[in-house]
Amino acid sequence: MPKIRCAIYTRKSSEDGLDQQFNSLHAQREACAAYVASQKAEGWVLLPTEYDDGGLSGGTLERPAMQRLLGDVEEGLVDQIVVYKIDRLTRSLADFAKIVERLDAAGASFVSVTQSFNTATSMGRLTLNMLLSFAQFEREVTAERIRDKIAASKRKGLWMGGNVPLGYEADGRTLKINAAEAATVKMLYDLYLRLGTVREVKEEAARLGLRSKQRTSPSGAISGGTPFDRGHIHYLLTNPVFAGRIRHRNEVHEGQHPAIIDPTTWETVQDRLKSDAAKARSRDTGGSSFRSLLTGRLFDETGDRLTPSHGKARSGVRHRYYVSHRLIAQSGEADVTGWRLNAQMLEELTVRIAVRHLGDASVLAAILLDATTDELLGARGRIVERIGDDLPPDVRARAVADLIARVDLAPGRLGIAFCPVAISAQFNVAEDRIDPDQLRVATAFTMRRRGVETKLILGNEAGPPDQRLLTNIAAALGWLDRIKAGKTYAEIADEDGVPKYRVQQAICYAFLAPDIIRQVLQGRQPLGLTSKWIFRHALPLDWAEQRALIARL
């Protein structure tokens, strides 16, 4: 009888209780081991390697133990994965499909010791998909509930955790002033009002010996206490916490904590920062009201630098671009090709790639050589503080740009090289403790054209949904229901205040195949499938014919 090598995988979403002598991971492993032992007669053998992910969400596959396990499966070291429940493996239906695909390719399988079904049958796979759908639904509902709770608490002015800003100490669900640190905050604001630029404030703060907030982890590791860089100073000058307020995404609410900076003074600083930024952007772009973040750092596949440019639409709106330098230098010459990309779109794509790379816990562990858990947690906290989602988009984009040394653009590929000096300052570690090989990331992208508009889509992710197409489909489905109920085209047109021909033309959207509608919802439909195309072509009612026709777009 052939042996079936079994690997037990355990996971717990939170870190609560992991320090206990017998925790949830141990309980899962014990139950799985007992199940494997019960199958000894079938040739099941338990492998000694432990695959445990403690304190990690099931909403992503970016888990160290999970990646090691899948790697061992693909190398032929594991025949069967054993889990306590399916949701320990993943809570995402899409991720589960990826796992099953990798297991099938390696000739491996998995079993849940508390949920018995046979995935070799269609009914078993349906049951499994239903279980995973509910697991994913539970995760999404829990996440929504937490987000709603945080939003509601911040609207009431409560402090909802995270790195405590310079000048404050945590005091339950609010903050109290740390007098010594508050003096540093006031001095930075005074310096800016007196000197007028963040660069000069940085230089003067360094001369005066001002330092960032020093933090001590539960284990006693110390971080911070370093000179301020320009990005950190800008963050402090724009943080509404110092004016007694709480920021949540793009909204600012009155907080329940005392202000360090008078709100009027804080508003004055914001006005000056915006005014100075507008002047700087105007200098950078020759009068344009925007600044190109990647200037001097963006190169194409030939090594040619991409130059910022802008054009003005008939409406008077300025549009920024990055253009291969040869297109400008050899303007008018024949057979000269190069890049001309929407600057804002390319910058947003670059920022997303950089944030995703630096925000990945496994990447942080690889970047910081021999880092302790406390150092990794501290680095993660500084990443959230400097380039987290709660920051205004322009502040976040500038902070990310400060960490980038070079961006290389090639057909279907975008590569980013981070600056070791900037990363060293960001993580507050010596430069020789940073692995330079991990400071590069390359990602595939595609260009989706819809009319004159070009979208840059990262990797295999969906593009932005076609809102006009979705609106037409939703309207048509509603009209079809009313037609089934006995309404005429004319009655529907009168009720909705639209021309009768509009209802007659658009009703065809209701007969799109369900999978095509699903693609539209996900932004994955063929590039040529637009509202204009549907109006100009006779759409067959047979779904197979629809798919064949649309696949050629």
Provide an overview of this structure.
The protein has 4 domains: about 5-145, Rossmann fold (3-Layer(aba) Sandwich), CATH 3.40.50.1390; about 170-285, Hect, E3 ligase catalytic domain fold; about 300-460, no CATH class; about 465-550, no CATH class. It has helices at about 25-40, 65-75, 85-90, 95-105, 120-155, 180-195, 200-210, 230-240, 265-285, 325-330, 345-360, 360-365, 375-385, 395-400, 420-425, 465-485, 490-495, 500-505, 515-520, 530-535, 545-550; strands spanning about 5-10, 45, 50-55, 80-85, 110, 170, 175, 215, 220-225, 245-250, 250-255, 300, 305-310, 320-325, 340, 405-410, 415-420, 440-450, 455-460. It has about 550 residues and is α/β, with parallel strands linked by helices. It has 21 helices and 19 strands. The longest helix is centred in the N-terminal third of the chain and has 34 residues, at about 120-155.
